């Protein structure tokens, strides 16, 4: 096979997990047809500044160096190779390598405890080790301009190449600093368990270079570890949507355990749950198993109200984590026709399509003739997909013969439905007069309802037809009218003008909410499990008035 290279594999016999990861990478490249480093680089592509996201030398290092590769770089390479190899589930393949990376990281840390950096390594290679004769960028025939561009976009990749003894020493020092950061974070987590802290620092003191660090950590709780003046993210865990509940849960558990002077070892013996599990739950902000909470309450003789509070917090945290799992399982790229086919055939004409639930794969939305008030709110920050939801709602109503009045004071895809059969009128001005709206609603009745769909309703909050719009919600059930509005999160104070009436319906769809107060728009309280996620168009949380929020994907 012309032009194909087989890359050497590093000697990793002392690090079996990393060896397994490296062998898996080489096997994946073989299945992909042994692409070159430059081919992999090209498949990953360039960034917004037209630099390579990962240069070809960094690709080679990932396969050939004995160091643990960067996780982000590893994910990109595995994604490309999995696609080229024709793997059915690229996401699962990436996750498999991420799990191996985490195990290899734990392996590296565990070995660092018993094999601290030695003076011979830190001295820069006095034992006579020779640096490579030429780096990959010094190979003949390489374009000098490309070399400079690669160095500019990925300076750390160049820093990783042991071109001389100084670079080797710097690499060892960085590893030592990383280990110090791990010690500091562990001391922080164990600070209130003096027994566990004492045992841990005793192990640290066995390494001569860390004695002073251990002594300092024993005297006062250390601050966050930092590297080069920048807060380290080396040991951070992923943000959990149940953080608020977990903090309260851990605080109550720790308060009771400290009051009883109970060590993790004793806690493990009395609850039947291993001390390692308890320590992991404390240090990693993980949710303990429910049976562990019950056992803790029993052995510590918690009062009934504290026991109920712990279980309530556990249920709330579990629900938040489950919501996150269901949110991540939402379908992508679903069309309106596909979503429409998922609806219940018995749904009434007043039912509107708002989204598709992930696991159930069913169409979800409100029945505008039921509930507290005939209104529905779609809210979210800019570019979250509000207009798409309103278009879907209007199309679903038109499809079953329900008449619709459209209003879009600002540029919106809703205007494109103006010529559809079943659209009574479409108002595109930044003002709305009561006489023109009243005329379009004159034929509405419970038997032949008319639904008003307004995009960018905030722009009409103070319009002349405000009293008439308010009446649509107050008397809609009797008069055969309903109101669907799209609002920007945080655009105007809640409750302004006639929009206050739409909140009384206590139902709606929140798209990528960023603030807790966004829940007021649809009559539900939301917390950390919902807010603050990256804005992804067409991903939201549906509330139909029952106090529960359902993650849904928006068709289109």
Topology (elements, then pairings):
Elements: H1 16-31, H2 37-44, H3 56-64, H4 71-84, H5 90-114, H6 119-122, H7 144-153, H8 155-159, H9 165-189, H10 194-205, H11 211-219, E1 226-227, E2 230-231, H12 243-259, H13 264-271, H14 275-283, H15 290-299, H16 304-328, H17 336-341, E3 355-357, E4 363-364, E5 375-380, H18 386-399, E6 403-407, E7 423-427, H19 434-440, E8 450-454, H20 466-474, H21 476-479, E9 481-488, H22 499-503, E10 508-511, E11 539-543, E12 549-553
Parallel strand pairs: 5-9, 5-10, 6-7, 6-8, 8-9
Antiparallel strand pairs: 1-2, 3-4, 3-12, 10-11, 11-12
Second CATH tier, the architecture of the largest domain: 3-Layer(aba) Sandwich
Provide the CATH topology of the largest domain. Answer: Rossmann fold
Task: List segments where confidence is low: pLDDT < 50 over at least 5 consecutive residues.
Answer: 113-172, 225-238
User: What is the overall number of helices?
Assistant: 22
């Amino acid at each position: 096979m012309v032009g194909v290279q087989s890359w050497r594999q590093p000697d990793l016999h002392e690090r079996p997990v990393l060896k397994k990861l490296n062998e898996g990478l080489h096997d994946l490249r073989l299945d992909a047809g042994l692409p070159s480093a430059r081919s992999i680089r090209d498949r990953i592509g360039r960034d917004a500044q037209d630099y390579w996201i990962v240069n070809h030398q960094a690709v080679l290092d990932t396969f050939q160096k004995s160091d643990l590769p960067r996780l982000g770089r590893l994910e990109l390479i595995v994604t490309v190779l999995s696609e080229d190899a024709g793997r059915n589930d690229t996401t699962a393949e990436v996750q498999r390598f991420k799990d191996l990376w985490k195990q290899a990281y734990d392996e590296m840390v565990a070995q660092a405890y018993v094999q601290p950096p030695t003076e011979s390594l830190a001295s820069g290679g006095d034992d006579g080790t020779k640096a490579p004769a030429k780096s990959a960028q010094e190979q003949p025939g390489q374009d000098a301009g490309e070399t400079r561009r690669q160095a500019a976009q990925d300076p750390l990749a160049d820093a990783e190449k042991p071109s001389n003894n100084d670079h080797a020493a710097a690499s060892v020092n960085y590893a030592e600093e990383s280990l110090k950061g791990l010690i500091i974070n562990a001391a922080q987590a164990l600070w209130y368990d003096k027994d566990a802290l004492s045992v841990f620092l005793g192990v640290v003191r066995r390494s001569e270079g860390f004695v002073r660090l251990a002594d300092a950590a024993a005297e006062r709780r250390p601050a966050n570890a930092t590297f080069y003046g920048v807060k380290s993210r080396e040991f951070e865990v992923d943000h959990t949507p149940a953080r608020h509940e977990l903090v309260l849960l851990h605080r109550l558990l720790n308060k009771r355990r400290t009051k009883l002077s109970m060590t993790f070892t004793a806690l493990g013996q009395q609850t039947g749950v291993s001390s390692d599990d308890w320590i992991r739950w404390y240090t990693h902000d993980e949710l303990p198993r429910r049976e562990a909470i019950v056992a803790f309450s029993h052995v510590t003789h918690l009062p009934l109200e504290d026991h109920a509070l712990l279980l309530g917090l556990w249920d709330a945290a579990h629900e938040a984590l489950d919501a996150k799992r269901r949110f991540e399982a939402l379908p992508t790229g679903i069309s309106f026709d596909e979503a429409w086919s998922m609806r219940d055939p018995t749904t009434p004409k007043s039912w509107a399509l708002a989204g598709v639930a992930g696991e159930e794969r069913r169409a979800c939305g409100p029945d505008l003739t039921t509930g507290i008030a005939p209104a529905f709110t779609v809210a979210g920050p800019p570019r979250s997909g509000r207009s798409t939801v309103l278009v879907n709602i209007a199309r679903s109503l038109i499809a079953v013969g329900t008449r619709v009045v459209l209003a879009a004071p600002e540029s919106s895809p809703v205007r494109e439905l103006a010529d559809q059969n079943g659209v009574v009128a479409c108002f595109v001005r930044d003002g709305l007069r009561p006489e023109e709206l009243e005329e379009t609603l004159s034929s509405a009745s419970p038997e032949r309802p008319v639904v008003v769909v307004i995009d960018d309703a905030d722009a009409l909050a103070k319009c002349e037809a405000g009293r008439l719009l308010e009446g649509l919600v107050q008397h809609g059930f009797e008069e055969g009218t309903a109101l669907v509005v799209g609002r920007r999160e945080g655009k105007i104070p809640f409750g302004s003008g006639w929009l206050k009436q739409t909140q009384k319906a206590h139902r709606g769809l929140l798209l990528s909410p960023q603030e807790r107060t966004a829940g007021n728009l649809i009559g539900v309280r939301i917390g950390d499990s919902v807010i603050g996620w990256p804005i992804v168009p067409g991903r939201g949380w549906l509330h139909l008035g029952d106090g529960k929020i359902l993650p849904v994907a928006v068709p289109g």
